[in-house]
Design brief:
Blueprint (H helix, E strand, L loop, with lengths): L4 E5 L4 H12 L3 E6 L18 E5 L14 E4 L6 H6 L1 H22 L2 E7 L26 H21 L3 E6 L2 E2 L10 H10 L4 E4 L5 E3 L1 E2 H13 L5 E4 L4 E3 H12 L5 E4 L14 H7 L7 H15 L2
Parallel strand pairs: 1-2, 1-4, 2-3, 4-5, 5-6, 6-11, 7-10, 8-13
Antiparallel strand pairs: 9-12
Helix pairs in contact: 1-6, 3-4, 5-7, 7-9
The protein binds nicotinamide-adenine-dinucleotide.
């Protein structure tokens, strides 16, 4: 039997590269399409001799032409960290609109299944905690994070339109904060920020009073959930994330303990529209995918810190 072929946009990024590894281990053929705007060749270097892996350096907002059979299109290309999307707002909106359109067109023409990487940010500053898939979100359409939030909301709407109107077999995964090896030190997201500062014995920066919460999922748990969703027959959005909520001060203290850093915690003003709470309700993922995360925050952070130790200059 022929290997199933996956087109994975954003496959040289943090999540995409882990997902590619996971699929290759399960005998999929993976075509990674990435323009390296935030991704890195280093994330996929180890696959260069793998016959089941192909890398195409291209911008998916410009078009997505692939020859031959395609069984899945997994659309993970996006700017994803607040620093990146603030720096590149138009590219963010393009990849979440034109990029998603091109990825859906490819799936439609190939008769392939489609999945888009959505985000908990579509809930905005949530009016309910935890966040259930039924919540429509509380998003500022013109705020400093709007280029990301609205690009993902548009992507979800476009995905449902292709599903309802054209019958494309689609999936929407709403990913909550995920961390692990291969995140970039300079990424701007809280986990790599704090780890990089701790390993350099620099002050650990907390924004606001540090009481805002996030729920952190280790990358291997997330990839397992994504794989299960690929196999499931379910087109409404599914939250994937770890429901154990921590505030930013708690996170900083865990990282201080693991690294034994002498760096002190310092406070800076909160960026605009920073959500106060993030906690996934994963009832749907449990029921449909039989999924729940298994890696504790401490275990996941220990693995991530040891990876950053090898990486931090
Ligand atoms: P990342 O920046 O490491 O990866 C994104 C990849 O997309 C990069 O390799 C980048 O070069 C590529 N890319 C961006 N624009 C492109 C374009 N126009 N054409 C081709 N490639 C392009 O970020 P990540 O954390 O791995 O995020 C992957 C996906 O998951 C994104 O869609 C993101 O929105 C979503 N997501 C991630 C998280 C998380 O916690 N990591 C949470 C919610 C959603």
């Amino acid at each position: 039997m022929q290997q199933p072929t996956v087109v994975l946009t954003g496959g040289a990024g943090f999540l995409g590269s882990h997902l590619g590894d996971f699929l290759l281990e399960r005998d999929y053929s993976v075509i990674c399409v990435d323009n390296l705007i935030t991704g890195r060749v280093a994330n996929i270097d180890h696959l260069s001799g793998n016959k089941s892996f192909k890398f195409i350096q291209a911008d998916v907002s410009e078009g997505l032409k692939i020859r031959g059979r395609v069984d899945f299109v997994l659309h993970f290309a996006s700017l994803a960290s607040p620093l990146d999307y603030a720096r590149l707002p138009i590219e963010t909106l393009k990849v979440g609109s034109l990029g998603t359109f091109n990825a859906l067109e490819l799936a439609h023409h190939k008769g392939a299944k489609f999945m888009m990487a959505s985000t908990s940010e579509i809930y905005g500053d949530p009016l309910h905690n935890p966040q259930k898939e039924e919540h429509w979100g509380n998003v500022n359409p013109i705020g400093p994070r709007s280029m990301y939030d609205e690009s993902k909301r548009f992507s979800e709407a476009l995905t449902m339109a292709y599903h309802r109107k054209l019958g494309v077999d689609t999936r929407i995964v709403r990913i909550f904060n995920t961390y692990g090896p291969r995140m970039k030190n300079e990424d701007g997201r809280i986990v790599p920020n704090l780890i990089t500062q701790a390993l350099a014995a620099k002050p650990l920066t907390i924004y606001g009073d540090g009481k805002q919460t996030r729920s952190f999922c280790y990358v291997s748990d997330l990839v397992d959930g994504i794989y299960r969703l690929m196999q499931a027959n379910f087109s409404d959005p599914v939250n994937l994330g770890n429901p154990i909520e921590k505030n930013m001060l708690e996170l900083a203290h865990i990282i201080k303990d693991i690294t034994g850093t002498s760096g002190k915690i310092v406070f800076q003003s909160l960026p605009g529209d920073d959500p106060r709470q993030r906690k996934p309700d994963i009832t749907r993922a449990k029921a449909i995918l039989g999924w729940k995360p298994g890696v504790t925050l401490k275990k996941g952070l220990i693995k991530t810190v040891s990876w950053f130790k090898g990486k931090t200059p």
